[in-house]
Design a protein that fits this description.
Elements lengths: L4 E5 L4 H15 L4 E7 L9 H15 L3 E7 L8 H14 L3 E4 L8 H15 L22 E5 L9 E4 L4 H8 L25 H17 L5 E6 L9 H4 L8
Helix pairs in contact: 1-5, 2-5, 3-4
Length: 251
């Protein structure tokens, strides 16, 4: 069965960091959602790829995902090259999502914009009939192109197109993110010898995550918000009043 929304991530925890509340909300509302991690995060300073897989499984349960897969591309080596594009195209054609979420086009981590470019291009090529791909059993896949692609915002702020009110899902969002005990601050996690503190394991990082969500939420009259940028604007509508029917909490 096709997915309503499929989120791609350069590393396990990217989606939880930036769009976890949205994923929780959609699952609550009965939508079928999934996450595709491009790499295992094997270059991460803390933890292990095997440990992050277990952490991702816990986060997936909290977010109510129907699908989570890892393509096993090389961490630090994501390329917009034919072999990597084919892996993403096969995934898109298998799950046939209406909406795709992507990494940010600009960020402090080079893998994030690299993942964005790879998946954005694959979303287009997945719709071309003359690009042939097959399932693992050898059966041919049918071309598929998502109707909408958006990217979530990471450490570099960009003016969003949408801000999703995730207030009602905030506790689950935090629980999904903190499932990554090896990556973000967790009082119960015992670092291995030589594991230093990182940008996201610093306790202040979680404070910043909440502060930013509050700042975006305030702009739309919510307590917590998650911002997204729509890639193919403008968006066509037929009923302006119905589209803008939600009353603004602040003017």
């Amino acid at each position: 069965m096709p997915l309503d929304l499929l989120a791609f991530a350069a590393h396990p925890d990217d989606v939880e960091l930036c769009a976890g509340g949205t994923m929780c909300l959609l699952a609550r509302e009965g939508y079928k959602t999934g996450v595709i991690d491009l790499t295992r995060g094997e270059l991460g300073t803390r933890g292990t790829p095997e440990g992050r897989l277990l952490e991702a499984e816990e986060a997936s349960r909290i977010m109510g995902l129907a699908v989570r897969e890892n393509l096993g591309l090389p961490d630090g080596g994501i390329e917009n090259a034919p072999a990597h594009r084919e892996a993403v195209i096969r995934t898109l054609r298998r799950h046939r999502p209406a909406i795709v979420l992507l990494n940010a086009p600009e960020d402090r981590h080079p893998d994030h914009p690299a993942a964005f470019r790879l998946v954005a291009d694959a979303c287009f090529y997945a719709g071309l009939a003359r690009i042939e791909t097959h399932e693992d059993d050898g059966s041919p896949q049918t071309p598929w192109r998502p109707q909408h692609t958006l990217h979530y915002i990471q450490t570099i702020d960009i003016e969003p197109t949408f801000v999703v009110d995730v207030t009602s899902a905030w506790d689950d969002r935090v629980a999904a993110l903190t499932s990554y005990r090896s990556q973000v601050h967790s009082p119960g996690y015992e670092p291995a010898p030589g594991e230093p503190q990182t940008f996201i394991s610093n306790p202040d990082f979680l404070v910043w995550i909440e502060a930013r969500a509050r700042a975006w939420g305030y702009r739309v009259g919510a307590t917590y918000g998650e911002p997204f940028v729509y890639r193919h604007g403008p968006i066509g509508i037929t009923d302006l009043v119905a589209t803008l029917s939600r009353e603004r909490a602040f003017r």
